[in-house]
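Worked Example 4.2. Read the sequence first, then its structure tokens.
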Amino acid sequence: MRLFRAGHFREAHDCFQAALERVDSGDQPVLYFDLNYNLAKTLQHRGEHRQAIKIFEASRIADGRRYIRYEHGIASSNCKLGNYTVSIQQFTRITEKYRHCKKDLFYYECKLGIAICHAMLNDYGEALKLLRALTREDPDNRAIYLKEVEHLKLRLDEELVLNSGRRFQRLDSDSTALRPATEIRIEGDPQLCELLSSIVTEFPEIRLPIKAVYVEKRDNHPSGLKKLGASNNFVPISQGHRDHLGHVLIYNREFWSGASVPALRGNLAHELMHRAWEDSRAERLFFSWTKDTLTYGCLERIIDLCVMAKGFVEDIYESRKYIQERSRCNESIDFSLGEISRLLLSASTFEMAGADSNLTKFEVPEAIASDIRRRVFD
């Protein structure tokens, strides 16, 4: 469970699988079903929802006493797979059966799931009604519901723009058009705020205030992160999200304790580009990065390309180098050093065939070029 809570889902999956092979369902039924449930949860976090559903369904039949957790797992995975109507039906069955125990965590999670499914089906009115009701019924998690309300309002606004046929005119004439970066309020940790202030002018697409904070090891858990409006279990490196007050950037202080200024600045630029992507409505105009892990992986590369195009080549390179050196896992959905290096080398030799191009030739910064020469890439 320690690996699971830390976000190391591949390792946690292997451990749960190994433990299951040593447990007899007849002698230790509770442990056996708990291990199966946790195994399915790791598959969910890895995006393997069809396999997770198979385990949940088998466990639901064999362990009827804890029907609610398996049914919730099935409904959640169906939502991720895009089976929104089926997911609503499953979530609704849970809420109707467990109306007497509304304080149960699954009850409110199911209500939130129903709202999200309605939003994905473009039933914005019903989704907004459910979310607003949740802010009253479950005040402890009000920040989470308000964040969803904010996202829903943005989606509704964008839908109206697209349907009206005035997509680009609206973006140009919107009353919340791009404002000077000097008007963006930045607050939080002094070091992060100083770095953000020095680069935010390169992200004029950002419209909302920014709060950037370090999370200490003792607070890097669900209840601690909930105070910052985050709903995840753990922040391994950094993450950003938007709530009703603006953008929130959360950095794992333990992970970044040894980072150089360029490395930290590169990661901040990456997170700012995500915020700019949202505020400029690029997500809705192109694709939704929450669709699946492949789409998310592609967006991560687009984000890094945008960051490099804004002039943060050396910073993003130093950031990736630091992350790879500090991470326990060499795998990453982000640009690897090898990918960045090959891209820069390609850009330095780029020729527009058959054209008298006046493009300025890109030169790989010496700090990176010397590092490339020392490395051997696949």
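Now turn to a second chain, presented in exactly the same format:
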Amino acid sequence: MTYVLSARKMKPDFEKNHSPLAFSRHFSRHLLISLLAMSLVSCSKSVGGNPELVGNPPPTSNSNPQNNFDFGNQLSVQKMIYHVGPVDLPAGQSVDVMLDKPAVLRFQVTEPVWIIGFEPKVIDGDGKSLTGQLLYKALVVNKHESNPVCASGNGGNPFAVATSTLTKVELPEGFGYPILPKDPLEAKVVFHNPTNKDYSGVVFSFEIQAIPMEKGKGISDVKAMLLDTDPCEHKPIAIEPGAFVEKSHTFTIPNNGNLMVANGLLSDYGVAVSLTHQEGDKASLVPFWRAEATLDETHRILDLTPNPFIDPAGKKIAQGDKLTLGVSFDNFSEKWHNEATGSAMVYLAPSDK
């Protein structure tokens, strides 16, 4: 059964004027729904927050019975939906102005959960989908967790990221990113409007799919790492007119692990994003994954293919190995492109060897 709980309005069916017979027939069902809704999640009041909770979907039929993941976990999946906004975006609203005034939502969960999926959307006030071109970048950060690729940073660790391609990410079955009720979470969203149309009441909506830890059996944790050309501040790149630019940044992996998922993130005028693995001192120039951009006639990015990178078995990464992020941009225009961004949101499962 599916249900929705809104922070602004909740009307359980059993509050309606049913007959005594109907009330008796459905009381236990509605009581169960209410108890589940009360236990899911809470969200602190913040800018434009409008969290909703969606009930458990039926179990999938293509689950892999060969791993240690409890099939019953699928019955415990919760969908937690958060809204950031609304904002008004006049035609041509540039990124540089919006970078200084991101929309921010602060929230926490009410029980320990494993996050197993993340789905971003851009919608209007009626919940209708809008073009992803209105989103420049959204970061969802765990403020209690240190950033493993930024020694000097104290702003928390991003564990989910979205850009205009609005890529949905799902972890392989049996893996999850752990979140506790004491963890302060923050979604920071930068909008813009490169189109020639005015938009009002624009909302960034993201759905977190999670399993309560007390109900999750056999789930292994993953570590989140945002590999960025600027891993601490996530500042954009300036591309001069008519230039083709390639940027790279190499990261040393602190622990043994298996790379499960990598979500490529690239802005307009982007060409490709890639990851290269260097084992120990062995030099490597060939990426094990490269996603290329599809652009429209104005060079706005429409898609990345293939994206995300997924390896259910996990690509082995040893402590001390290096991952190199590569991004490339082609500025066809006669103006400076000052808001280029490229990164990869990586999920690593810790390993003993």
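Notes for the reader: Residues 1-50, 53-72 have pLDDT under 50 and may be disordered. DSSP finds two helices and 24 strands in the chain.
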